[in-house]
Design brief:
Elements: H1 12-22, E1 30-31, H2 48-59, H3 72-83, E2 92-97, H4 99-115, E3 123-128, H5 132-141, E4 145-150, E5 152-153, E6 158-159, H6 161-169, E7 176-180, H7 193-205, E8 209-214, H8 224-227, H9 229-240, E9 249-255, E10 268-273, H10 277-294, H11 301-310, H12 313-344, H13 351-354, E11 359-361, H14 366-376, E12 378-379, E13 385-387, H15 396-406
Parallel strand pairs: 1-12, 3-4, 3-7, 7-8, 8-9
Antiparallel strand pairs: 2-10, 5-6, 9-10, 11-13
Length: about 400
């Protein structure tokens, strides 16, 4: 019976990481595929502040089930960190989820429940390109019609503003619009404040639900306020708008995988803006049911660590300083890679330093990326996307030499 299943197919990113591990040919092989902050040996780094929090939690560990909504204190702290509100706002329904993917799962299913009452099949719009899970989660798993809006101009190596605005403005009414709060994955090129205002305006006019994927607060720039600007501006608009028909309806999917290094602990939160007591109660009930039927209860170790850090002023400050160090190192790696490439090629590589966060879109073609893997052991995706933390101050010259070679410079 099982033989009727389709042939096995590797996830592209993990498939390339597997090729890297199996490569016995290249002594200087480099893994630029996996999106994690790693040390010189390629091991994911555990922040010292997180290690301390884990040690504190281990002294008196909690091992019981959480309720489907998750840990309420964790949800409140996450809401305050993201929205910068002094007190919990009942207009924001917050539910714990297994990292950003879990939060997106809640968002997709919640919107589907809503649109099932008004449309035969919900439609979700994602940027072209975007994180692949956006498409598979909304399309394959939840049955949306997934469409793309223009984002990246491959020729100019920046956002295609005209295409972006045209596609966004022509999207079907009552759709889900999926965006990235900061450190856009995979391009590293973020929307300007003016472009965000355009998104908010379109979503209000056409009664869209805006889903903001926030995976890099504090990690992207080292500045929590800057990285959460779009989220806080959406909240400001939502609170200030009195006419219900003009309200900005939005959901924020928050992850602690990158900014606390809790990759394997799957820790995140889904925040749904639902003004009005009746709306908030309905949203909380439905979101909790969705969580219950998919994972029943969220993992608690990660949320315990987050609480330990955010409730301890000294530990929180140590964590913030570590994040600022991470952000600065990535910025320096970008600058060094740009300099190395401009020394070896006649091209302008300014787009590498115009981008921000974990990933960089190099502009390399698929055939060039394949050559880099096969001939030089430099493992990156066929799209030309690299994970910047995979670069080190020791291997950047080798990476630049390899890229220069495939460019025939």
């Amino acid at each position: 019976m099982w033989s009727e299943l389709p042939p096995p197919e590797d996830d592209k990113i993990f498939g390339i990481a597997k090729e890297y591990r199996n490569d016995k040919t290249h002594e200087q092989k480099v893994n630029l595929s996996i999106g994690a902050y790693v040390d010189e040996s390629g091991k994911a780094i555990c922040f010292k502040s997180v290690q301390k929090a884990m040690s504190n939690c281990a002294k008196d560990p909690e091992v019981g089930y959480l309720m489907p909504r998750g840990d309420l204190v964790f949800c409140e702290l996450s809401q305050k960190l993201l929205f910068s509100v002094p007190e919990v706002d009942d207009r924001i329904v917050s539910i714990q989820a297994p990292s950003g993917t879990g939060a997106l799962t809640v968002a997709a299913n919640l919107c589907k429940e809503l649109f099932s009452r008004t449309a035969s099949q919900p439609v979700a719009y994602v940027s072209n390109p975007t994180w692949p899970i956006h498409k598979t989660l909304f399309g394959v798993q939840c049955g949306y019609v997934v469409k793309e809006y223009g984002y990246w101009d491959a020729a100019k190596l920046t956002i295609d503003d005209a295409k972006f605005r045209s596609d966004m403005d022509s999207a079907n009414e009552h759709s889900v619009i999926i965006t990235h709060a900061c450190a856009h994955n995979p391009t590293g090129q973020d929307l300007s404040h003016e472009q965000w205002e355009f998104v908010f305006d379109v979503c209000r006019r056409k009664q869209h639900i805006l889903v903001i994927d926030c995976a890099y607060q504090g990690f992207a720039s080292g500045d929590f306020e800057r990285d959460a600007w779009a989220v806080r501006r959406a909240y400001e608009i939502g609170v200030q708008t009195e006419n219900q028909k003009e309200k900005l309806c939005f959901i924020v999917c928050q992850s602690y995988a990158k900014n606390m290094g809790l990759y394997g602990h799957r820790c995140g939160c889904c925040h749904i803006f639902a003004p009005g007591k009746e709306s908030a109660e309905k949203v909380l009930s439905m979101a909790s049911k969705i969580a219950r039927r998919i994972w029943s209860n969220p993992p608690r170790m990660g949320s315990d660590v987050v609480k330990a850090i955010l409730l301890d002023p000294q530990l929180k400050q140590e964590w913030i300083q570590e994040l600022q160090g991470v952000s600065e190192k990535i910025r320096l790696l970008r600058a060094k890679l740009r300099t190395a490439l401009e020394q070896r090629t006649p091209m302008d590589w300014a787009h590498l330093t115009n981008q921000i966060g974990m990933f960089a879109y190099t502009g390399l073609r698929p055939d060039q990326c394949k050559r880099l893997r096969a001939e030089y052991g430099v493992y990156l995706l066929d799209t030309g996307r690299i994970s910047v933390p995979g670069c080190t101050f020791e291997n950047i010259d080798y990476i630049a030499d390899s890229i220069s070679s495939v460019l025939n410079c």
